Amino acid sequence: MSSYLDLGGCRKRRRGGEKVFKFKNFGENGCPVEFDGSFRDNVKALVDYGHLEVNLCGNGVFSWSFQLEVHRHPPLHVVLFIVEEQMQASSSSSINLHCKHCQYVGWGHHMMCNKKYHFLLPSKDTVAACFNCDETSFDDPNPEKGKFNLVELKGHIMHGVFHSNGFGHLLCVNGMEMGSDQLAGYQIMEFWDRLCTGLQARKVSLNDSSKKRGMELRLLYGVAYGHPWFGRWGYKFGRGCYGINQPIYQKAIEAIQGIPLCLLNHHLSISNNDISVIFSRYQALSDHSMVTLGDLFHFMLELRSRLPKENSIDSCNPATVETNCRWSPKRVEAATRVIVEALKNAEFRWVSRQEVRDAARAYIGDTGLLDFVLKSLGNHIVGNYLVRRCLNPVTKVLEYCLEDISTVYPNSEALIINNSKAKPRCKITKVQPMKDIAYLYKHILKDQKPTLSTGVFSAIPMATRIILDTKFLVKEYTEELSMKGNSNCSNGKTFKLLCTVISRSDEIDEELKKPLPPYECVCLKENATFDELKQEVEKNFREVYWRLRSFVVETIVNLSVKGLDLVMGSVEMGQKLVFIGSNEDQIGMDDGGGSGIVDCLCGAKEDDGERLISCDICEVWQHTRCVRIPNNEEIPHVFLCKQCEEKIVFLSSLP
């Protein structure tokens, strides 16, 4: 999906006085506004700099646009739209008012908020579908019938949504490889991260479905770096599907990263020599020994990022042994050949350094020369062979092995001692590493062969499944608002407290055990009374939550004070207070709006977004995958869970 948005096609869209902002620093403090308030205050301050759009998403829905310049030569602009969706506008819909994204990531206990803020970078296709650029202006008071709602369209470059309590979800990122009129995925993520940081969002979740050339990036980057692609911006494990928790996910990552390359190469080379060729190619390029599968994928991705787009580098050079030593080049070359022959006699198996040294001493008496050559030969090419060296992870002993690479470099030259005379045998371009990565991904991670079904390799299919089932990631930006400086306060209000509320109940102790709404920073004047504090708390929470729009504070937990008592002196600056109050509105009092009980065989107790099926007797929901209903099959009209089926069989056997 191209991220280029050509506004020139919308003739009526052009407005000469509209300000243009820099894409690369939009969202930083001071660009375009000083973000020094709460999340809601920062959003209000930001939209003041935008252009107010009319009828963009229907009557009564406020929206603003920002022209953003990506670069000037050649000219490239995108437009950021901010759409304010109020609960009153949404409540007319028959759909469940609870946020499904909150439910999936484990925030289903949060109360519904009064507002959502959509942040969108539309693509050319979504702009054309929404605005009909050839005929309709954004400001047309009578938009054509059938014009699509921008928020509901799919295929945006970026779509993120925030609830008014500061919790948000990144719904989509559609980046492309860098080009003359495109935005790359990392540019979009940096833009989104700046927005979240500047606005002082609390937590942001995403459903990681990112792919590249058919490869799931959460698996590829998990093996290479120990975290998904989004981990570059601080997104971590949020919630796993099918009952997967963070320790299980971490063990899966470690298991698949730690697969020994030597064992993997031995098993796979029997049926697939191409994998051995790829191993040898990148081992020759590396200046250190790659021991595990994680090392290999990490090196390949890092190498690809460093390669120029068009140029290439040598994939290997003939072995070069330092000649700046006390032995002549002729003696060094002779010792090298003896060591290679000793390794050939070992029939290409791994042997310890001491074994190689002892075998070579039968022909070379100078042990100092042998030690020097053994040290210099590690992971170098000699003739048609790659001399590999690595530390045995079990015995902690240095070992050597010889690999025949004549099939990779059939025209290899004889041993060349002087590095200045070395000639490159082949070139590697930026495209080659990605081709090799895709090949290894397919044959090791995706389509496991029977040779990988035993021993240490039996962990690969299970670990792969666990990593792929971990889709929901979360980044914590500001769990609680900062109490430093004068942020979040204005009009002389300098005394700050962190406050939250609960509804009045006969079982206050039980109510306190439930998850409370996030604390809000309430600012007061130094001479404020507790009556004024209660008014501020009511104002803040009424503004945020749909359920609390008529909330009235009655008492403060564990604090006995009178209404006219001064706050300052009774409580400390930054103290957390819990307020108990009454509320007439009951909408949104259920936790998460779930449609039934989830109790799956995998251990899941809540809806995680995967396909579910309900038992027709007990009405308990389970994953279709866990009850062995393939995803490509329709859900049966009648379904009985195992427990109910066993009960029926038992009852039918009674006399």
From TrEMBL:
Keyword Zinc-finger: yes
Keyword terms: Metal-binding, Transcription, Transcription regulation, Zinc, Zinc-finger
Family matches, as InterPro entries: MS1-like_ubiquitin, WHD_PTC1, Zinc_finger_PHD-type_CS, Znf_FYVE_PHD, Znf_MS1-like, Znf_PHD, Znf_PHD-finger, Znf_RING/FYVE/PHD
Name this protein carries in UniProt: PHD-type domain-containing protein
Short name of one Pfam family: WHD_plant_repro
Source species: Gossypium schwendimanii
GO MF term list: zinc ion binding
Domain of life: Eukaryota
Domain PHD-type, residue spans: 597-647
CDD domains the UniProt entry points to: PHD_MMD1_like
Transmembrane found in the keyword field: no
